[in-house]
Amino acid sequence: MIDLKYELVGASRLGNQQDVPVVITLHGMGSNYLDLRPSISFFNQKVIELHFQGSIEYANGYAYYIPRFFEASEPDVIGNAAEKIYEQTQRILKANHLEGHPLAVIGFSQGAILATTLMTFHPEWLQAALVLSGRLPDFISEWARQHLKSQEIETAVFISQGKKDIVIPPEVGHQLVDFFRVYAQSVTYHEYDVGHGITMETARDAYEWTTTLKLGKESLN
Predict the structure, then answer these.
(1) CA–CA dist 59, 28 (Å, integer)
(2) If you compute the radius of gyration of the chain from its CA atoms, what whole number of angstroms results?
(3) pLDDT in tens, 53-110
(4) Residues 41-52, mean pLDDT to the nearest whole number
(5) In this structure, are residues 15 and 98 in contact, taking their beta carbons and an 8 Å threshold?
């Protein structure tokens, strides 16, 4: 299995501070691992950055998978892509002596779908997740019914959705909220008067939300 290209920022400088979170970013289709670097500012504290780039060329960028579910099932396509990210992350954390650090993820669009899958498959792995303009994969609900108990996902979840989003409509975002209100311990939801994207208002609300998380002791303020 080919590893994804990634960028690890701050590990050598902050790795010896055990309470500094590692924040993973997962971009949308047609983008790259630089796309979500500005979203690191959503956190009001020092963080170690881990930016993953999809391995499949798509449009002007990359994708983690191509959603041709008529050729292969969602569990095979999305589930395998999520597990690939999980396994590679574990190797990166071990190689850089970061295993004990708090973990968070920021995912947009396809990256948000993968973040949702990661939280479901590994309910104790991530402390926080920002799920931006994502959707609930069809197979995840049934998988959760078979494998999870109510509020077993320990991740604090922030979900954002655009009211004018024609790629992933707002009612799809509502499905995410309903799912996590059953299986997660903490869920926050915001809708914005925007299409498929991240606004300054999203950034403000995400920043305010992260201030309540207490993922580490070191604040930028």
Answers:
(1) 11
(2) 16
(3) 999 999 999 999 998 877 888 889 999 999 999 999 999 999 999 999 999 999 999 9
(4) 95
(5) yes
Burial 88-124 (b: 16+ CB within 10 A, else e): bbeebbeebebeebbbbbbbbbbbbbbbbbbbbbbbe
> What is the β-pairing status of strands 128-132 and 61-63?
unpaired
Q: Give the pairing of strands 103-108 and 61-63.
A: unpaired
* Residue 6: strand, helix, or coil: strand
Phi and psi at residue 216, to the nearest 5°: -155, 170
18 has pLDDT over 70: yes
Question: Token pair of 215, please?
Answer: 């993922």
Confidence (pLDDT) at 219: 37
* Distance, CA of 203 to CA of 207 (rounded, Å): 6
Q: What percent of the chain has pLDDT over 70?
A: 96
Count the neighbouring beta carbons within 10 Å of the beta carbon of residue 27: 28
DSSP 42: G
Tell how strand 103-108 and strand 56-58 pair up.
unpaired
Number of H helices, E strands in the chain: 7, 9
pLDDT in tens, 181-220: 999 999 999 999 999 999 999 999 999 999 998 776 443 3
Angle (nearest 5°) at CA 181 between 165 and 201 = 40
| Biggest alpha carbon–alpha carbon distance for the chain | 50
